[in-house]
Amino acid sequence: MASMATPVSRAAAARVLWRPLGAEDVETVAALEARIHAAPWTAGNFHDALRAGYAARVGLRDGCIVAYGVLMLGPGEAQLLNLSVVPEARREGLGRALLAQFIETAEHFAAEQMFLEVRVGNVPAITLYEREGFVGVARRESYYPPSPEGEREDALVMRCALGRLRRVIHAVAGGGDGGSAAD
Asked: In the annotation, is 112 catalytic?
């Protein structure tokens, strides 16, 4: 799959320090979440994810969190629960870089597939996921809480094969050796 990031985007992504999300990050991440999403996770949701042992990461640029996400691992599969980039850092390859880290983590723990849910109206996210091998497998009607306008939005459930099957699919699609998904 061809990378869509520009050289400037690669440079911007390279300036990000990635590390595990810690309890000390939760209040900041929850505040960013409230700014980014119509139905945000709360600080309690992030604390619960950390207590449950979910894989959670943040990306920092100049000491500020610019991206974060949470991945739940289970027997044979993983569920991407949250992947967010602050608006001022979008289109720089950070979502793709974080997604690649989560795919690597899932494969390390022998997950054979990864699932996620995304708002059907979030075309940039759906495009990213499709470029990284995710396909739509179901639709959950009125899944997300009402917007300020009172409308509920459907979720698209997406799935991606991991491990050996991901490499085979990537090779068949003309991707070569199944290299990194990061920009």
From this structure: no
More confident residue, 84 or 9: 84
Counting every residue, how long is the chain? Answer: 183
145 phi, psi to nearest 5 deg: -60, 160
CATH code, domain with 61: 3.40.630.30
Please confirm, yes or no, whether 129 is among the known catalytic residues.
yes
Does the residue 168 lie in any domain? Answer: yes
pLDDT bin (cut points 50, 70, 90) of residue 169 is: low
State residue 175's pLDDT score: 57
Q: At what angle do helices 123-131 and 94-108 cross, to 10 degrees?
A: 50
Burial of 24 (C-beta count, 10 Å sphere; 0-12/13-18/19+): exposed
How remote is the C-alpha of 40 from its chain's centroid? 15
Q: Which of 77, 107, 112, 117 is catalytic?
A: 117
Once rounded to an integer, what is the mean pLDDT over residues 30-54? 95
Question: In the chain, how many domains are there?
Answer: 1
